[in-house]
């Protein structure tokens, strides 16, 4: 109904205004339809049955070349102008248009199919007081829908109620951000009270006023009015389309945004048609060629006019002029005739061949078994066939972190307890042993509650715990008690942990396997199994984590009545709060922490403090007063936490590995050697992003400096950026040097380029999202760009999807360099679409990035093969193709130009008409295609061995305007040889029997034969990698030429088609003469020898990197891969290896009585909810003791 109303409105000319605020009412379709909001149907297709042909033809004829050939076809239909048959242009043009149309139709049919599949999904909609099944596309804004476990979220919904306590739901956001861990959403209490009461829900008339549709995934502003009361709405109460409901039996939601208005679709945006830099260059060159063609035709037309005046009257006796045709009109007609004759400077086969080459190179990517990921059965995929050669010119890579560089899996790797380091293995000589998959694991079979997936290799730690070492037991007791994890036990002994962050899950699981099993919790107690003995501790208070405190504490009372504070947090924070007696232990532990940080591990320090009963009574009373204070609550609570969290005793430190995808450090190292700069743009917090930077070897200890920009004002950001720039390059000018130029078709596009500035040494830059917002403003963006481009590594953390795209656009605008963006979630889509090349990580459950990408594969490590092998080869092949194609066609055309001076400028063709038709279509097409599909300068292993081979593509060394001019000069020289030597050789020449062979047809045959032999020889010179196919096509094309020539020039063909094949007997009369073959040989030598000589001289004087490596390939055997050795120990000198992806507020939730009042638990996956969003950091700091009233906590804290 909504779509009908909307369509009718559009037909009547009613234009929809820009939406400024969304206003809707639950269960009131007429009210909501009056606003003409979009329904829930999505449409990603471009055409329908009626619009396909006109729209597709219009799009194709907007290409300059296609429009030119259509114009040429119309000219050939004019008898007074055309010297060639119309079909010579019509057949290739129709072929090109048809191939492109079929490809576009196939792509659009797939889009239609996907749209139908999504739009026809079923969902329960509350209609007329009952739940009815409806298709997704029929759902309207203001409808109330019911979702069930494992269902996709239908639209952007306001959560009303759920089956879970406290109106919570668990959603998986893989489709949005690529993360498979679960997130928690919570409904308002006022709507949650309705539960699944259909009567209450159907009479619900709440009104929502909120922001208009936008693409901000992490923010939502609005309010809900119910019974005259207004309640604030934020992102924690919204379920976004693209999420999947997990571990929640049911929930009800109110549709806020539908279909194209949902944040998922808003992030998808419009698919822009991407063109490669070579495409843009070809457009400019084609325009130049048109100008050159016009100039040649003008010169020949002038020549025709002069000839007609001076010589033409002599020929009128046997070539009388048509009535009304004088010299001026003849000259005008000859201009257009020469436009047709010389049109081969831009043959339509150029575009056909380019598409075929790109398609072939795309198949190589699809078929590459070395980019196939067997674990997920995911091959690499070239989702577009028009950007292959651009992969060989990448200068900047913009990468997401979570799911792209990392697996988002945390593992307990090492620890330091009471000054002793655990987790490393040593042989009998004391040398460190590298841990591999074959290394023997610690056997935890003695522990019935151990997690079977937990892996640890150092037996000494287990022995220490079993021996009853008090520090080791206190260490794991702390890990088992100090957390906000929720346990689930489906069967006896089968524990599942729901952790608010993957770090916590890893630490609690480690304690579980070493005998300290967190078993269950209530709001007042925590029950653990200590080495098989059940221990229930009274939970007195949770001092929750936040980004300022950088620590978390719990206060517990043991069964013996002993009260203890357990604390874990950043080393720099904990060390300030230790008792002076821990100084020696602190020094030893610091050494271990530096080792862990050097290995790229995420570290936390653990400490405890025994508390007196009398002190705790007073502290709890003051805590209660501070929690209920109306003013200054946060400051009072902070003072209390500072007071109790001091004079603690150090226990040790943990080291957790945020597991990288396989081969990430090696890939980044290879790409850096290829002079490709990698910027990481992530939504994670600074510590996490910095830690991953060191793990990936993007940030290194040997860097001269790593600058951190985290100012909260524009002036502060400017000062920090300038200080960094001045330190890196003191002599650099204060103002950036911006070079302005013009580029593009007709030179209409204005460009501004900021040159790279030389820096001595390697530097890194880390910038926060709030600082980046200031830096991206108009007056600071150049300062940001200058400073960032001086650095080897740039990491932007806490960035929004929009900021990711802005950073990419900034580099594209001022660096004129080719960019690539790689990610795996919907939050990366804007970045992927903004970059020249977009790569999606597939194989995860989130596929939104893949659907918007140009190329996709399952692992980040495949990026180096995509660029260094496929990209480089594609670029080399395309450049070689263009150089050769322009050479052979300009040579072909220039011979016509010289011949015009000998044929009275009459637009007579120098070659046989059939040779003109078949030259690009048959005789020279297959050899060049085989060259550009199979050629390689060096194989893939040498490409990896020398990543520097990639750099020529970044500098456009192999095809540019200069290279094009060189091709024209080469063609001009060859055409002079190809015309004048056959002309001189045939002039006044007689056969062996004394008969004359100096006729037009014999000259045409000799000229075209010489041309074909020369261009074939040139192709052989350009071929580096010979295959059977190359040999077959080169020799086969020459053989085909002679076979076709002898057939067409035979008596039989002349008798059957007299007017079509006039060259009767020419081939057998000419090609049986020795002087003709001598002429062909002489011309071949004169055309090829200068090229060989020039290449030899350049190889000796100015060899390229390709020449050097090819020389080494001829002499050396490629070394086999070096044996794996344990990596050298790196000791970190940076301040801290701390990184913890926990968020504030979860402590209140797990200590809420309502949270645990629920029916028997169903099986659910582990809840790794890494909510590194800006919202999570802005919540007020509120901490409470367990004895406070539940109602009070529920009203003062919204999850």
TrEMBL record:
Membrane topology of this protein: Multi-pass membrane protein
Keyword Cell wall biogenesis/degradation attached: no
Any one GO MF annotation of this record: magnesium ion binding
Superkingdom, natural source: Eukaryota
Binding residues for Mg(2+): 400, 402, 824, 828
Key word Phosphoprotein present: no
Keywords: ATP-binding, Lipid transport, Magnesium, Membrane, Metal-binding, Nucleotide-binding, Translocase, Transmembrane, Transmembrane helix, Transport
Domain P-type ATPase N-terminal, first and last residues per copy: 26-89
Active site residues according to the UniProt entry: 400 (4-aspartylphosphate intermediate)
Bilayer-spanning residue ranges: 84-102, 284-307, 327-352, 881-902, 914-934, 963-983, 1003-1021, 1033-1064, 1076-1098
Gene3D superfamilies found in the cross-reference section: Calcium-transporting ATPase, cytoplasmic domain N (3.40.1110.10), Calcium-transporting ATPase, cytoplasmic transduction domain A (2.70.150.10), HAD superfamily/HAD-like (3.40.50.1000)
Catalyses which reaction(s): ATP + H2O + phospholipidSide 1 = ADP + phosphate + phospholipidSide 2
Pfam families found in the cross-reference section: Cation_ATPase, PhoLip_ATPase_C, PhoLip_ATPase_N
Subcellular localization(s) per the UniProt record: Endomembrane system; Membrane
Domain P-type ATPase C-terminal span(s) in chain numbering: 850-1103
Cofactor(s) in the UniProt record: Mg(2+)
Entry-linked PROSITE patterns: ATPASE_E1_E2 (PS00154)
InterPro entries reported in the protein's UniProt record: ATPase_P-typ_cyto_dom_N (IPR023299), ATPase_P-typ_P_site (IPR018303), ATPase_P-typ_TM_dom_sf (IPR023298), ATPase_P-typ_transduc_dom_A_sf (IPR008250), HAD-like_sf (IPR036412), HAD_sf (IPR023214), P-type_ATPase_IV (IPR006539), P-type_ATPase_N (IPR032631)
Stretches the record annotates as Disordered: 1179-1199
GO cellular component: plasma membrane; trans-Golgi network
Binding site for ATP: 400-402, 504, 545, 568, 602, 682-684, 798, 804, 827-828
GO BP, one annotated term: phospholipid translocation
Major location (coarse): membrane
PANTHER family: PHOSPHOLIPID-TRANSPORTING ATPASE, PROBABLE PHOSPHOLIPID-TRANSPORTING ATPASE
Annotated family: Belongs to the cation transport ATPase (P-type) (TC 3.A.3) family. Type IV subfamily.
Protein name: Phospholipid-transporting ATPase
Organism: Kryptolebias marmoratus
């Amino acid at each position: 109904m909504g779509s009908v109303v909307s369509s009718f409105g559009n037909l009547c000319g009613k234009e929809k205004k820009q939406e400024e605020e969304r206003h809707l009412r639950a269960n009131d379709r007429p009210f909501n339809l009056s606003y003409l909001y979009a329904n829930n149907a999505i449409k990603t297709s471009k055409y329908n049955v009626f619009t396909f042909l006109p729209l597709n033809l219009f799009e194709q004829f907007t290409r300059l070349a296609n429009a030119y050939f259509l114009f040429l076809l119309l000219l050939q239909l004019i008898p007074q102008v055309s010297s060639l048959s119309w079909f010579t242009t019509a057949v290739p043009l129709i072929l090109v248009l048809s191939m492109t149309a079929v490809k576009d139709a196939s792509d659009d049919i797939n889009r239609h199919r996907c749209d139908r599949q999504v739009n026809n999904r079923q969902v329960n909609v509350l209609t007329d007081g009952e739940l009815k099944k409806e298709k997704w596309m029929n759902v309207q804004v203001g409808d109330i829908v019911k979702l069930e476990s494992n269902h996709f979220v239908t639209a952007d919904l306001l959560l009303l109620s759920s089956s879970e306590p406290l109106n919570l739901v668990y959603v998986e956001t893989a489709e949005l951000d690529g993360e498979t861990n679960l997130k928690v959403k919570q409904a308002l209490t006022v709507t949650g009270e309705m539960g699944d009461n259909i009567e209450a829900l159907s009479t619900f008339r709440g009104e929502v006023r909120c922001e208009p549709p936008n693409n901000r995934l992490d923010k939502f502003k609005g309010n809900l009015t119910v019974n005259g009361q207004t309640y604030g709405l934020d992102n924690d109460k919204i379920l976004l389309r693209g999420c999947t409901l997990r571990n929640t039996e049911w929930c009800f939601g109110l549709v806020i945004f539908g279909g194209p208005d949902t944040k998922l679709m808003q992030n998808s945006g419009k698919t822009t048609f991407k063109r490669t830099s070579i495409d843009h260059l070809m457009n400019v060159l084609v325009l130049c060629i048109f100008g050159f063609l016009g100039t040649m035709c003008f010169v020949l037309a002038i020549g025709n006019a002069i000839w007609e005046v001076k010589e033409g009257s002599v020929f009128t006796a046997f070539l009388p002029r048509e009535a009304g045709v004088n010299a001026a009109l003849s000259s005008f007609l000859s201009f257009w005739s020469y436009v047709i004759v010389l049109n081969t400077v831009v043959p339509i086969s150029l575009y056909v061949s380019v598409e075929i080459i790109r398609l072939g190179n795309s198949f190589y990517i699809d078929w590459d078994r070395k980019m196939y990921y067997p674990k997920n059965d995911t091959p690499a995929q070239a989702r577009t066939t028009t950007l292959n050669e651009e992969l060989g010119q990448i200068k900047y890579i913009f990468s997401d972190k979570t799911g792209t560089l990392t697996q988002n899996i945390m593992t307990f790797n090492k620890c330091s307890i009471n000054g002793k380091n655990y987790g490393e293995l040593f042989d009998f000589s004391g040398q460190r042993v590298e841990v591999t998959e074959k290394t023997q694991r610690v056997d935890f079979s003695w522990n019935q509650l151990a997690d079977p997936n937990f892996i640890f290799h150092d037996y000494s730690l287990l022995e220490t715990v079993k021996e009853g070492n008090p520090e080791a037991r206190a260490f794991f007791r702390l890990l088992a008690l100090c957390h906000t994890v929720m346990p689930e036990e489906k069967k006896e002994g089968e524990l599942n942990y729901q952790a608010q962050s993957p770090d916590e899950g890893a630490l609690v699981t480690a304690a579980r396997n070493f005998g300290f099993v967190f078993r269950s919790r209530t709001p007042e107690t925590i029950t653990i199994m200590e080495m098989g003995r059940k221990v229930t501790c009274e939970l007195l208070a949770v001092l929750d984590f936040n980004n300022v405190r950088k620590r978390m504490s719990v206060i517990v009372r043991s069964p013996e009545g002993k009260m203890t504070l357990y604390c874990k947090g950043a080393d720099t924070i904990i060390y300030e709060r230790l008792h002076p007696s821990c100084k020696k232990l602190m020094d030893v532990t610091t050494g271990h922490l530096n080792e862990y940080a050097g290995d790229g591990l995420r570290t936390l320090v653990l400490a405890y403090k025994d508390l007196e009963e009398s002190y705790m009574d007073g502290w709890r009373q003051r805590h209660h007063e501070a929690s209920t204070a109306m003013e200054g609550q946060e400051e009072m609570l902070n003072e209390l936490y500072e007071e109790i969290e001091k004079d603690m005793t150090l226990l040790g430190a943990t080291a957790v590995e945020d597991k990288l995808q396989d081969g990430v450090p090696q890939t980044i190292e290879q790409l850096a050697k290829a002079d490709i700069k990698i910027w990481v743009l992530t939504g994670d917090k600074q510590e996490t992003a910095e830690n991953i930077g060191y793990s990936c070897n993007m940030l290194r200890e040997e860097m001269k400096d790593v600058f951190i920009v985290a100012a909260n004002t524009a002036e502060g950001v400017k000062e920090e950026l300038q200080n960094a720039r001045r330190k890196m390059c003191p002599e650099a000018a204060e103002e950036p040097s911006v070079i302005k130029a013009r580029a593009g078709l007709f030179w209409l596009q204005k460009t501004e380029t900021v040159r790279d500035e030389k820096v001595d040494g390697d530097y890194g830059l880390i910038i926060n999202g709030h600082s980046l917002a200031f830096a991206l403003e108009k007056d600071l963006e150049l300062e940001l760009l200058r400073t960032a481009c001086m650095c080897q590594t740039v990491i932007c953390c806490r960035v929004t999807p929009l900021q990711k795209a802005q950073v990419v656009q900034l580099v594209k605008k001022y660096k004129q360099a080719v960019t690539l963006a790689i990610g795996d979630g919907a939050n990366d889509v804007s970045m992927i679409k903004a970059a020249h090349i977009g790569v999606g990580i597939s194989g995860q459950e989130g596929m939104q990035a893949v659907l918007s990408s140009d190329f996709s594969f399952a692992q980040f490590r495949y990026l180096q093969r995509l660029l260094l092998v496929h990209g480089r080869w594609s670029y080399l092949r395309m450049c070689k193709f263009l150089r050769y194609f322009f050479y052979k066609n300009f040579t072909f055309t220039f011979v016509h130009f010289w011949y015009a001076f000998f044929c009275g400028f009459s637009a007579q063709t120098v070659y046989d008409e059939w040779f003109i038709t078949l030259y690009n279509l048959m005789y020279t097409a297959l050899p060049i295609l085989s060259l550009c599909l199979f050629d390689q300068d060096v194989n893939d292993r040498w490409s990896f061995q020398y990543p520097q081979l990639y750099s020529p593509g970044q500098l456009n060394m192999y095809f540019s305007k200069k290279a094009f001019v060189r091709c024209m000069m080469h063609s001009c020289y060859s055409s002079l040889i190809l015309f004048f030597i056959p002309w001189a050789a045939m002039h006044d020449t007689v056969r062996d029997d004394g008969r004359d062979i100096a006729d037009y047809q014999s000259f045409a045959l000799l000229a075209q034969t010489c041309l074909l032999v020369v261009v074939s020889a040139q192709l052989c010179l350009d071929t580096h990698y010979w295959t059977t196919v190359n040999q077959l096509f080169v020799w086969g094309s020459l053989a085909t030429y002679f076979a076709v020539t002898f057939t067409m020039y035979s008596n039989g063909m002349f008798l059957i088609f007299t007017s079509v094949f006039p060259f009767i007997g020419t081939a057998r009369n000419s090609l049986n003469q020795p002087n003709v073959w001598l002429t062909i040989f002489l011309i071949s030598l004169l055309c090829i020898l200068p090229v060989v000589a020039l290449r030899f001289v350049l190889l000796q004087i100015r060899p390229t990197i390709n020449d050097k490596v090819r020389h080494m390939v001829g002499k050396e055997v490629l070394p086999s891969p070096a044996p794996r050795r344990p990596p050298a120990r790196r000791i970190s000198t940076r301040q801290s290896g701390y990184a913890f992806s926990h968020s504030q507020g979860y402590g209140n939730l797990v200590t809420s009585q309502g949270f645990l009042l629920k029916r028997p638990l169903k099986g659910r996956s582990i809840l790794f909810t890494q909510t590194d969003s800006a919202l999570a950091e802005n919540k007020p700091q509120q901490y409470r003791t367990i004895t406070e009233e539940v109602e009070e906590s529920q009203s003062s804290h919204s999850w």
